[in-house]
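Response to reviewer comment R2.3. The reviewers asked that we include at least one raw input/output pair. We reproduce the pair for MFS superfamily sulfate permease-like transporter here without editing.
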Amino acid sequence: MTKKINLFANLKSDFASGLVVFLVALPLCLGIAMASGAPLFSGIIAGVIGGIVVGYLSQSHISVSGPAAGLTAIILTAITDFGAFDVFLLSVFIAGLIQLALGFLKAGSISNYFPTNVIEGMLAGIGIIIILKQIPHAFGYDADFEGDQAFVQNDGSNSFSFLFDVLNHIQLGAVVVSVVSLVVLLAWDKVPFLKRLKLVPGALVAVILGVLLNEFFVSTGSSLAIAKEHLVSLPVPKSFDEFKSIIVTPNFAAVTNPQVWVVAVTIAIVASIETLLCIEASDRMDVQKRYTDTNVELRAQGVGNIISSLLGGLPMTSVVVRSSANNNAGAKSKMSSIIHGVLLLISVLSIPAILNKIPLATLATVLILVGYKLAKPATFMHFWEKGKYQFIPFIATLVFVVATDLLKGVALGIVISIIFVLRGNLKRAYNFKKEEYEDGDIIHIDLAQEVSFLNKAAIKQTLNDIPENSRVVINAHDTEYIAHDVLDLIREFKETRAIDENIKVKLKGFKEAYELENTPENNNHVTIEHYYDVAKRALVKKETVKEEF
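Raw output as returned:
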């Protein structure tokens, strides 16, 4: 039974974190809409629905949903091919229905198979992407849109070469605003009396100071004044009719178009995978270590995309950047996500002109600190100390998330992790060299904690290497599970080759379910117990049995 959550229990901290996420989400919503070739307001609508609707329906306490950079290429291609935004919205509507069905089919359970080192590598990779992409904005160079995560950009440059271009486009006013914002943000976390002002987030103070500084530069005619194109650019409807024209509804007449369904399935799959990855990452960031029902999350995302499409909004996912900012700002519950959505709605309806005074440089500084916390050196050292089987998938995921995209990076990390798991399982359960044993020595074979069918080849080779006239102890005392295939292999060894080559076998720690026949030849009466459970792959549990040769 799901525990009822009091959304207002942590209103003080949730309001502060919701405010920070609102400030971060606003330019991202606009930037992603612009990069997608969609109306700017469609990004805001998705942000509002992702915050209020998905935030309410989701069980995640940390994650925040909204338009995602990972979908921009799909959206841009679809809108271009369809030639009409309302036809594309029908694909979003159908994608929402598919996600809803996936949730009821419990497809969210696949998230349980994402390795921890891969998730951490994904987070660190996104942290590095945020830093690389926001440094130009912090220096006043806004040629690349807010929210872009692609390594290779539309102009042919990449995230590293673009940093060198910044040197030719530095705006001193933006640098001053960024430095002041950075000082405020760092002081807010370090200075004791400022840390107690939790209701007022440091990001808000940084934004207010950034606006005031630039207004001062403008009013005094200073060369440091930041130009309009380097400020938040929110559409400002001049009348109610103009506002109504922003709302676009899906064109249901296009339901027979096969391409509409292809785009819908693509969006549903990509958005669902990105959401599941973000939920796993958000749960790992949560200091209270709460876990999210991913099937409920898929249903929430489905409902969110259905409503967003009906109002003219972009498709959405749970987004790591917003979720990280939410966690860093001290969110306690999903109320912070709802508050961020409400603030987006209120602000675009009432104070768009004020929001358009916010320098992108100050928002970039907020995001750079978010990126640093995701890719802290301590995280790299943690996985380095865990050994190569943990570090290599972590670093490979990180590199490919930065160089390609989130899904390809995670896919590579999972493949490498699987290879390492297979390699570990295919290793011999016991390695020995025949020449190291003299006649009369007892050979000990200690089985691992879990012995699956993947160990069969290694154990078979080990048994084949046992010399004639030997005495062998096969110990399963520390073994929790043994696959049926491996048990049959051991039984066949004892009943055939051991008899033929005068090998005495003693079995320890096996549970009773069937007997290996006692033979005078090897004078070894042992029972192996094994219970069959076809539904659970016929594994056996341990039970120590004491026999002597």
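Residues 258-285 form the longest helix (28 residues). The chain has 21 helices and ten strands. Further pairs are available on request from the corresponding author.
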